[in-house]
Amino acid sequence: MRRSYLTCVVLSISLALFVPFSVQADTATAGNTGIYRFHGNVEGAQVFVDGVLKGLIYEGILDVPVDVTGIPYHTYTLQREGYETYNGTINSVPARGQVISIYVPMSAKPVVEYSRVHLLITPPLAEVTWDGVSAGIVPDTGIMVLYDVVPGTHRLMVTKEGYVPLNEVLSIPRNDVMKVPRTLEPLAQGSITVESVPPGAAVYLDDKAVGVTPLTIHEIPAGAHSLRISGDGFQDFISSVEVTGGGTAIVSEALIPSTPSAGKSSAGLSPFVMAAGLAIAALYVAYRKS
User: Fold this and answer.
1) Looking at the predicted structure, is the pLDDT value of residue 76 above 50?
2) DSSP state for residue 290 in the 8-state scheme
3) Contact indicator for 264, 257 with CB cutoff of 8 Å
4) What is the CATH code for 115-183?
5) Which residue of 1, 58, 190, 247 has the fewest CB atoms within a 10 Å radius of its CB?
6) Would you state the pLDDT for residue 9?
7) 215: which strand partners?
8) 277: alpha, beta or left, given left = phi > 0 and alpha = psi -120 to 50?
9) Is the peptide bond before 214 cis (omega within 30 degrees of 0)?
10) CATH 2.60.40.1180 corresponds to the domain 189-289
11) CA 287 to CA 290: how far, in whole Å?
12) Nearest one of 112, 137, 133 to 125, comparing CA atoms
């Protein structure tokens, strides 16, 4: 009787130990299913197989069943915010009931210590370009703040009509609030005085109408500018005028009469009168230049 009791105890312990593993084995080998077991070092990482989300890594593991008679898988991807995305290739297919383990070590992305840049621009309302992309117009306060700037070198350009463009490279440190005060230099300006014989001719500066002769044009940026004088019945006078900062360029010109059109008579203007008119114009121009 005592021996029978011991036998029953041993049998009960044996069943308690081995039955769960047997059931697990039977479950794993049931049907035509195999398993890809993903081992990840990042909890909560998303697991994609052939671009389809299969689940999340939990306690370091995710089992993905696969029909061994179906279309095999080819690729897998693990991703989570703050970590580099991991891509891999599936090169084998599990047999029925087989578990293929895939180990995926994900790496954390480097921490970026962003900075903030305060642009203090004089005069305000200038246009700011940062790394070739427009950052907007400087407010009336003259302060523009650039947030989340990646440390390193960046190109700053500030432009405003009537001022010399600012173009420079800035080195931005890590985790810093950097103040960048910049003052734009006004463009050098000069004037052009335009006279013509006869007076009253239209004047165009850089293809824009600016008035009639005699005329003085002020606040012209230094440099070369195109000038055109146009009068009815006279040929256009076209020239390039060099303007210097603080100086006044003088253009005084006797306009040449236009050639009469075919069929129109020029009997009313004798060669003597034309010659006298040109001589007077030449004397006037010489007098003005002296």
Assistant:
1) yes
2) -
3) no
4) 2.60.40.1120
5) 1
6) 39
7) 194
8) alpha
9) yes
10) no
11) 5
12) 137
Going by C-beta distance under 8 Å and a sequence separation of 6 or more, which residues neighbour residue 111? none
Q: Find all residues with CB under 8 Å of 271, minimum gap 6, and list them.
A: none
* pLDDT score recorded for residue 202: 94
The greatest distance separating any two alpha carbons of the chain, rounded to the nearest whole angstrom, comes to 159
DSSP string for residues in 61-86: EEEEEEETTSPPP-EEEEE-TTB--E
pTM value? 0.46
CA distance 118 to 233: 60
pLDDT digits (tens, 9 = 90+) for 169-178: 999 999 999 9
Distances (CA, A) of 109 to 60, 103, 147: 19, 19, 21
pLDDT in tens, 79-125: 999 899 999 999 999 999 999 999 999 999 888 889 999 999 999 99
The CA radius of gyration of the chain, in Å to the nearest whole number, is 44
Q: Specify the CATH number of the domain 31-104.
A: 2.60.40.10
Preceding omega of 124 cis (within 30 degrees of 0): no
Domain spans of the chain, in order of start: 31-104, 115-183, 189-289
